[in-house]
Amino acid sequence: MRAEGQEMPLVLRLQDVRKVCKDWKTFSSDDPFMIVPHSEANVRSVRQYPIETDPPDHTDYRALVEPFFRRPNDADYQLGMQQLVDEALAAAAIPDSVDVVSELALPLQSRSLARLLNVDDSEANLWISWGTHVFKEGDGVSKGAELSSYIREKFEAAEGSEAHDFFSVLNRADFQGRKLTLEEKHGFANMAFAGGRDTVIHTVSSIIAHFAAHPEGLDFLRQDPARIITATEEFVRYVSPLTAIVRSCPHSAKVLDAEIAPGGRVGLCWPSANRDETAFTKPDEVVLDRSINPHVGFGFGIHKCLGAAQARLIIRSLLQALCNQIEAIHLIEAIPEIEQESSFERQVGFKRLRTSFKLRSSQHF
To answer: Is residue 243 within 8 Å of 270, Cβ to Cβ?
Structure first.
């Protein structure tokens, strides 16, 4: 593909993607604003931490926030998430129809993030108003300044606090013997709000669309609760809402037959790797009980997604709620979200997905 005036090779096969991910010295993430194919310098003003760094700094930065991102492994947290998802789905089933993107997936992602960051649930109401993409409106107009102002206000308000929310903890954090700078704290928050937003929203809406088209799938999951685990991994593999993460090459490098000059870039194409027919049987189908599933939907290697446990929990909880509450889903309108690039286009989710839900009681709302 062509991005930022350069021809950039995309690595497509699963094993090749994994190999590049492992070699962070050759294929570096230490390139601010360039973690995706096109520069984000026009929508944000700070480096994102820890993703836009390499070891050893990456290891130390990541350790500062890992306790938040391990919270989904806690049993009480999991119970709370299931209740949150149950209530969100029940509310979505009341009207005659609902836009799954804006009225279910977006609120669910925002309210789940408030739980993860250990901030007051009311914060999610503002985050919902930001829409599907935290950096830009649908027409591409940047709204990064709004997010930046919000983040700075939150860190200022948390100054001197002994609370255990995301902002207070980062204010107190020590990094290699010093306090974090405001820019570093801002970079952590920027990543937290952007990293799992549209990806989670598109995955949730894609799951609803799948079961609208394949109503037998919910019965299949109900027959064996263990299938919810395999289905969770399968939807991450199949949807792969993030198309590419980019690595920069400080020195010359070679990927297969592609020669990369110093300063050149290479893209890791997650959805292609996740549809690699040499690694997956029936790669273009959703196989809810796929038992061997070495997908890279959350990345691979040292930069593997911090929010993977949270995303998995949201998906598991949604699948459980659908099995418990929903008999059928009727699709009314589906407008796909299409990502267009110089050498490809692909669907990453939906702009709008209007459905109605039939509850298992057979009462149709």
So the answer is: yes
How far apart CA 28 and CA 246 sit, in angstroms, is 9
Radius of gyration of the chain (CA): 20
In this prediction, residue 135 carries a pLDDT of: 78
Q: How confident is the model at residue 140 (pLDDT cuts 50, 70, 90)?
A: low
How far apart (Å, rounded) are the C-alpha atoms in residues 13 and 281?
A: 14
Write out the H or E segment, with its range, that includes residue 90: helix 75-92
pTM over cut 0.90? yes
Question: Residue 56, preceding bond cis, omega within 30 degrees?
Answer: yes
Cα dihedral 289, 295, 297, 300, rounded to 10, equals 150
User: E strands within the chain?
Assistant: 2-3, 6-7, 10-11, 98-99, 174-175, 178-179, 244-248, 253-255, 258-260, 265-269, 326-340, 345-359
Q: Are strands 10-11 and 265-269 parallel, antiparallel or unpaired?
A: parallel
Say which CATH topology domain 2-359 has: Cytochrome p450 (1.10.630)
Rounded-to-integer distance, Cα 331 and Cα 317, Å: 22
